[in-house]
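User: Quick sanity check before I run a bigger batch. Here is a single chain. Can you write out its predicted 3D structure?
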Amino acid sequence: MDYKRYIAQKLCIEGVSAEETAELIATPPDPAMGDYALPCFKFAKLLKKSPAAIAADLAARFQRDDVVTDVSAVNGYLNFRVDRKSFADAALMQILAQGEAYGGSDIGAGKTVCIDYSSVNIAKPFHIGHLSTTVLGGALYRIYRFLGYRAVGINHLGDYGTQFGKLIAAYKHWGSREEVEKGGIHAVNDLYVRFNNEADEAMEAEAREYFRLIESGDKEANALFDWFKSLTLAYVQTIYDRLHIRFDSYAGERFYTDKMAPVVEELRQKGLLKESNGAQIVDLEPYGMPPCLILRSDGASLYATRDLAAAIYRKKTYDFCKCLYVVAYQQNLHFQQVFKVLELMGYAWAKDLVHVAYGMVSLEDGAMSTRKGKVVWLEDVISRCVERAREILEEKNPALENKDAVAETVGVGAVVFGALCNNKIKDITFSYDKALNFDGETSVYVQYTCARAASVLNKAQTEGLAGGAAPAAVGDAEFELVKLLAEFPAAVLQAAERYEPSIISRFCLDAAKLYNKFYLDCKILQAEGEVRAFRLSLTQAALTVLKTGLGLLGIGVPEKM
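Assistant: Done. Predicted structure follows.
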């Protein structure tokens, strides 16, 4: 049962929906104040009463029952107490019955959400700057699927532009097939960096010509490009596999080459296209934005041209209810312009396009530049984290079995959680020490909590013990834990509505802290009778929810650590 919604529906505050009321209901910092609390300050203007008067009136009218046993008004707050035994029994029954499906729903049945994320560049290795878009998009993909949506993961490849002419020119001057095959994507990137460091005007002109040949369908130029592309995709797949990332489409910029002209023509026919210094633009000044550049003066297309074509194609192909673009906040203006142009074109679904902006990720030495060759490769960050995890595991538990597999799960989880543990818009400076802290706000802490719970359950199974219903008296540590576990479905839904996986990250941290408090305050295996049975059920429920939460983020859980 969603107790917050249950309370909100019983309150029936005039002019306020049950959903709005439920969102305001929170858990008091001190359990002595109550199990739930509703601040009435936001209702003062609407109801033209003081918060204290509103709380007193609502408390007097509230119909107490077997679920909500007590209501009191204190200083503008409405405090509620629920029957702990019935609450715990209902929550644990639901969690244990649904298992890994707990927290999911069919709210998205029959609806499609397109998610554009990762968007790697062909012929360039995966650097740490791609971490957030990749794991944030991957988490949203899993969350929406968990809620019954058809999620379409799109890797909008960066496979169009003059840089590929530069790459072919560099390969022709300095490369060999043998060296590139041996060095893979890093050998290709070295050629690109060398071009930017050493190319003269003649080579720049040569690069422009090679790009023209690619566009015109030249067999040799396209064969080289396709080779570079295959090397890139094989390379990035190894990283996607480690991060548990999947896609349903790899349609990139080049895919829309023949789809841009119809969009340009549609803009012209609808009177939206204007000439400015030889270029073709859509004037957005009336909407507080600079013009959206559609074609350069030489007729070349731009990112906006391709994004317009992509949005229209995706709507026709997938008929999405939402299309998310998981792209760094530096592109805020770009997406505002693209979405506004689509709106001006008369597409009502433009309102369903969402830019999911996020902050930047870096290590302590700061930003990166692929052109200058100063870059931190994501594969190196992951591998180093895994190596550090193995060293820590060796120190903490030398007898641990499958240490390499556990280190992989712990190390990769630390990298993913490091990008998802805080609000997505914040810039992140990744620290190996902080990410692998067993006692900090990390995935390692949550994974270790899961291993602790699993150990309890394994011992119980060995002893032939099983779970059961709550006793007549449910203690504070037990109740605080079960109360939080009951809010997991609401957390998942909120994460989807706000495009914010960190809500699940924080939930997992809070649940792990409460489980560890329960573990230390309450004897589990040493307890007797119905108390022991209930505590085993609570342990199983906590483990189930924590594993599901981490799984939605793309993080695995070792059975032992």
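The radius of gyration is 28 Å.

User: Great, the batch can go ahead then.
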